Amino acid sequence: MPKITKNTTLAEIFKFPEAKEILAKYNLPCLGCPLAKFEMENLKIGDICKMYSIDLENLLKELNERPKGERLRSHE
């Protein structure tokens, strides 16, 4: 999997079920927003973090690391 960066869209991140748990931990408002599902392809994680004062650096670290060093896995 490519590394998740500030320019990665929510649509790309949501391909990995484990990511939703991490995003929920950071109280990402887009998870419950009905309008967000229509904008997933355009919403970049860096922009969202900036808008809602979410710690981007720590969020990216968690999204890109697994407890045993494993990458997030896609269920495709």
Proportion of residues in helical segments: 25-40%
Helix count equals: 4
What's the gyration radius in Å?
12 Å
Shape: globular
Portion in strands: under 5%
Q: Would you tell me the overall average pLDDT?
A: 83
Distance between the termini: 12 Å
The helix/strand class is: mainly alpha
Instruction: Return residue spans where pLDDT drops below 50 for at least 5 consecutive residues.
Output: 67-76
Taken together, the total number of domains comes to: 1
Element string (H = helix, E = strand): HHHH
Task: Say how many strands there are.
Answer: 0
Note the main sheet: none
Description of the structure:
This protein is mainly alpha-helical. The protein has one domain (about 10-65). It has four helices and no strands.
Summarize the SSE layout with pairings:
Layout: H1 10-13, H2 17-25, H3 45-52, H4 56-64
In short:
With 76 residues, the protein is mostly helical.
Descriptive keywords:
single chain; about 80 residues; mainly alpha; 4 helices; about 40% helix; about 0% strand; globular; disordered C terminus
